[in-house]
Write a structure and sequence with these properties.
single chain; eight-stranded mixed β-sheet; 3 domains; OB fold (Dihydrolipoamide Acetyltransferase, E2P); alpha/beta; five-stranded mixed barrel
Length: 449
């Protein structure tokens, strides 16, 4: 077992002083789909450099279950001893990650637990999801010789634990830990986690813990997130990802409403590229979704620039783009109820898009900048504007009908052809005519005979 190896490492470091190597990988903030890549890279680096053990400093309120499960698997799979230092909380997905480590140490005032699964609206997930998460927690705790019932009760409030035997062989009753009662989730304080054997010790700082784990000389290697990992986590965060999706659709909407191809279209494509590219990197998207996206965009551009009107081609393109976005919101192996969460998130994005388009379009058309580009005010005659073609100067001049006028046709006036119209009478070809008026740029003539 890995915890036995950790014991011997500590023992030999005392008997035979030598310089060891310890890897520290912080796990802080939201557990999102960008985090497993960072954790896996850190574990891989620790394995290649022959680290004595890996310390995970945990302070999180949780996040995505699929991301936490992937991190748990990576920790359980490594042959290097692993240590979780909860400073100060390991809630929800953070509790699962902590239980996957060989040893758990916790700071004073720390907490671990409250790992029930919820959907995007914050409501308790379906029984299928709860059942899955309950067994994930229980089996992970069991793999490291911890109380599986306590771990399961962190997920399911319906589990009742009448009593438990603590590390001192004393009996802990439900009256002492509220989470042991039916209808309550288990969340353990530092003292409770120590008494129940969930945590192995209490330390208030990383340096104190490392001195306890490795009294000899050691090199501490802290694995920090690279700028690209931070960027991907930022772009795939629950706040930024829907915003990119909405801005991308808003940009395309304004591009469709404006002639040619300009800034709105480029901005929209950039936002969609960031949205899809970041999701592709973290495994939330694959080539199939990208093909759907580009096919949809191609159909939309064909509808706008090639095919007149807006019909089947444009609607099909919109459907393909929306479906590709829906697929992006699903994990590679979606759990029960996740499809509805994805539909809910997509609908919110569409609603926000339409509201944003309406508000922005109304505000933009009233702005001075837009009025400079596209004049929307009436052009007054007193200001020198006129729609007249100057036919008024022809009034009183005579000419010859060069076609039959029935009542419209052509006449030759001052050696130039004009489209003319009579007052209703029929005038045959070669008849002498005179211009006697202009009606909305229509030259009016009558016969001279």
């Amino acid at each position: 077992m890995k915890y036995q190896r950790l014991f011997f490492i500590i023992l030999f470091s005392i008997i035979i002083p030598q310089e060891g190597k310890i890897f520290s990988i912080p796990i802080q903030g939201d557990i999102d789909m960008g985090l497993p890549f960072y954790i896996e890279r850190g574990i891989d680096q620790a394995e290649k450099e022959g680290a004595d053990f890996i310390l995970f400093e945990i302070d999180t309120f949780g996040g995505r279950l699929d991301a936490a499960t992937r991190i748990k698997d990576a920790i359980l799979d490594t042959k290097i001893p692993t240590v979780a230092f909860i400073n100060r909380r390991a809630i929800s997905a953070g509790a699962l990650i902590s239980l996957s480590c060989d040893s758990i140490f916790i700071a004073s005032g720390g907490t671990i637990g409250a790992a029930t699964a919820v959907d995007q609206s914050g409501k308790k997930a379906s029984e299928k999801v709860i059942s899955y998460m309950r067994e994930e927690m229980a089996s992970t705790a069991e793999a490291n010789n911890r109380n599986r019932d306590v771990a399961a009760a962190m997920v399911d409030e319906d589990i009742e634990i009448p009593f438990a035997i603590d590390t001192k062989k004393d009996t802990l009753f439900a009256i002492e830990i509220s989470g042991f009662k039916s209808g309550k989730l288990v969340t353990l304080s530092t003292l409770q986690a120590l008494r129940l054997g969930i945590a192995d010790g209490e330390y208030d700082s990383r340096s104190d813990l490392l001195h306890h784990l490795y009294p000899g000389e050691y090199i501490l290697v802290t694995v920090d997130e690279s700028w690209s990992e931070k960027m991907v986590r930022f772009l795939t965060s629950p706040t930024v990802a829907p915003l990119l999706m909405t801005l991308g659709m808003v940009g395309l909407f304004f591009e469709i409403k404006s002639p040619g191809f300009g800034f709105p279209g480029l901005f929209g494509l950039l936002c969609l590229a960031l949205f899809f590219g970041s999701h592709l990197l973290v495994g939330l998207a694959d080539v199939f979704e990208l093909i759907l996206l580009f096919s949809g965009l191609t159909l939309i551009f064909l509808e706008v620039f090639v095919i007149p009107g807006f019909g089947v081609t444009g609607i099909s393109g919109i459907i393909l783009v929306l479906y590709s976005m829906y697929k992006m919101l699903l994990s590679p192996h979606p759990g029960p109820g996740e499809a509805w969460d994805a539909i809910y998130g997509l609908n919110i994005g569409i609603i926000v898009m339409f509201i944003s388009c309406f508000v922005l379009f109304r505000a933009l058309t009233k702005s001075n900048f837009y009025k400079k580009i596209v004049p929307v005010e009436g052009q007054k005659k007193s200001e020198g504007y006129s729609i007249s073609k100057g036919y008024e100067k022809l009034i009183g001049l005579s000419g010859k009908a060069i076609t039959d006028l029935r009542p419209t046709g052509k006449a030759l006036i001052l050696g130039k052809e004009y489209q003319v119209m009579t007052h209703g009478e029929y005038i045959i070809k070669n008849t002498e005519v005179i211009v006697d008026g202009v009606d909305e740029n229509q030259v009016l003539v009558k016969s001279l005979t």
